[in-house]
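Reviewers of the previous submission asked for a worked example of the structure-prediction workflow described in the proposal, so we include one complete record here. The input consisted solely of the amino acid sequence. No template or homolog information was supplied to the procedure at any stage.
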Amino acid sequence: MTTLHITVGDREQLRQDALQFVRDVDADDLDTQDGTATLQFGTYDDFVDSLTPLRLELIRAIAAETPESMREAAQLVDRDVSDVHSDLKQLDVLGILTLEEGGPSGAIQPIVPFDRIEVHIDYPLLDRGDADTAASA
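From that input alone, the workflow returned the following structure tokens.
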């Protein structure tokens, strides 16, 4: 199993990381065997909109119980199947889990390929421009 690293904030760092990724791919110098995956959100609002407490609960339940279907995942968290289905689709798009067709019962099975999620949030209290102005005052 692997760790999912989630980073939030610092759009400039996100841009630089993306450019470095492209350079590494072009140079065929991409190390994919480090046992980690990274998901980056540009803003705190993007993060909390995508990883709501209900979705985090769903991720944990799937990782712990390995349900055979979306319906079984919904039962684990005592939620409506259509709401869980929507959440699972979004989490699949984000890469936090995968939806595999033909699970043990023939249904689509949600799989969480991580055993841990670590979150780093860069949440500046002052705009960089404000900090420069305040420092010179």
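Helices lie at 11-26, 44-50, 53-65, 70-76, 81-94, 128-136. We consider this example representative of the routine output the project will generate in years two and three.
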